[in-house]
Amino acid sequence: MKLGELDRAALAKRLRDGLILETGPFRTRIFSHAPEVIAGLSLLYSDFTVHADGFYDFHVKVDRVRGPRRFFHPQITFNFDGIEPFTPLPADHAFASLEWGLNWCIAGHAHHYLMLHAAVLEKNGRAVILPGDPGAGKSTLTAALTLSGFRLLSDELTLIDRDDGLLVPLARPVSLKNSSIDIIRDFSSQAVLGDAAHDTHKGTVSHLKPPAESVRRSNEKAKPAFIVFPRWKADSAARLTHHSKADAFIHAARHSFNYELLGSLGYDLNANLIEASECHDFEYSKLSDAIRVFSELMQ
Amino acid sequence: MKLVDSTLLAVLRDPLSMRQLSQEEWTLLVRQGRAAGLLGRLGARVIEHDIQAAIPVPAWRHMRAMLSIADKQRRAVLWEVKQLSRGLIEVDAPILLLKGAAYAAAGLAPAAGRTFSDIDIMAPKAALPEIEKYLMLSGWVSEKLDEYDQRYYRKWMHELPPMTHLRRGTNLDLHHNILPETARIQTRPDLILAASQPLPGFPNIYIPSSVDQVLHSATHLYHEGEWEHGLRDLSDLDCLLRAYSSQPNFWHDLIARARELNLTGPLGHALSHTRALLSTPMPETIARFGNSGGLRGKLMDSVFVNGMASAHPSMRRPGTGLAQLLLYVRSHWLRMPLRLLVPHLAHKAMSGNKKGQSDSLSQKA
After folding, report:
1. Distance between CA A150 and CA A126 in Å, rounded?
2. How far apart are CA A269 and CA A163, in angstroms?
3. Complex ipTM, two decimals?
4. Contact between A112 and B64 using a beta-carbon 8 Å cutoff
5. What is the per-residue pLDDT across A81-119, written as a single tens digit (0 to 9) for each?
6. CB-CB: which of A59, A82, A109 is closest to B62?
7. Quick check: A262 and B68 CB within 8 A?
8. Rounded distance, CA A266 to CA B271, Å?
9. Domain range list for chain A
10. What is the SS3 assignment for A224?
11. Which domains does chain B have, with CATH numbers?
């Protein structure tokens, strides 16, 4: 059953009893009474499959913190099976907190994958990995490509299957920050954006709904073909330049969540990934140029 | 002792029963195993019994993830032990690895899939200043403690304040005894050191004899009050007992050694609880040694078992909260006589017990 088939009241009830949500290879049972969570899920996750029973990976709650404080400064907390890994946040950050919490669940537990901090998209059977240095505009570019017919695999977490070295889809809402939110709204009239959470540790945050097609194909792994290091630079002409494989290897290892943990397996998976991928730097200033360059590259 | 009749315990008793679990039971098993620190061990059992094909893929993925973590820790501990061996080779005293570090470095029965957070080592008290000096020079620093806490550790405890490596972040506890200087029962660390065995390939590094491994594990479990890891520690004991029971005279030697080291109390609890909760095979005479009997024995058993159930919310019983409190009080009661304990707790209450500090002894992972 798709989440979108539940009306608000039915979704709220399911969330009280624990809604099992499928995102890529993971199923998470979410408990929440927070209206922000109900609104966010119903807007951004309508194409995702929900389950009534069966195995699930993570048991999480996003709910108001009890106590007198709730009357003048309500807060919410993210709870992972009895553990609260983050300090409580203002109540209107509930949905963002669920998104961060889900990332935390995966980054902290899914060591059956090599995990890189990078976005992944696919076109014509070939995948591109976009490693994200802060401020490089990775999420903006990912959102724009997603809205231009590229299949979204993930905007934050690249999962590499240890058994076959393929990239595992984890299509979830794309996290946009500050000015990126308006840039993407202007970029496409089809962009569906969730309510913004203001004054978070990342500034203002809003999430872009992933295309139904990407969500539907969440069980189709993809072959790595390109690693592109994007850099937004004002007034620059869009251009791809060669990036050394040795540096790409080190960059991937350094920006991995569990490269060291996996030992020789991590080394092998990373080496195979770099071996299979053309590596480029990419400088751009206009999203429309970027889409053209990526379309040509991945024909 | 039917108190914690959880999926996790059933599977620890009979790993082959993993082939018959329902989807819902798998969810619960992964949650309980993860919280109790036993998911890696379950993964090791799957491999040992070669039943991967019967395990649902999503659950098996979590076990493989934990096995990867355990493997990484084993590599890290071997590296740390190598450094210790090189650095402390000049010290005229044996360095004994305890618990997790010993299991991992020597590949002992509980090692497969086991994760741990500290490296525990023990050496004769007289050698501590020299060892501490070496450790400080090689980058190990104690957390910042006030004078009171420094004195608490150095005068009364069986270990120095916990140390952390500046660059690697590894935690190290340097012990000179397995029980505090002030504890109600006193043992003989010199005998444990004397009976220890060299770790092949690591000069001057030793591990305790097999019976002493059991006795230390039991003493740690029933004296330190780290009950959120209680079930993991009990399962360690189960692994050790199963592995060593085939040695000639093992059970006889174990009881005799417990008497010699004055550790029959913790051994009795360990035998009784491993048998009742984990069906650890043992001769009837040995099982009788473990049974404390009487109303007091039954009450204590119920408190301990409740303590072990505190690992995961789904295993908790109505009495678990009270049991945790009783166990906390008990660990302090065992640690020092009232004439020391009352002023100590008063000092902690007055100073606001900044982040638990010296109390973290009973809280740490």
Report:
1. 10
2. 9
3. 0.90
4. yes
5. 999 999 999 999 999 999 999 999 999 999 999 999 999
6. A109
7. yes
8. 41
9. 3-109, 113-297
10. strand
11. 7-363 (3.30.460.40)
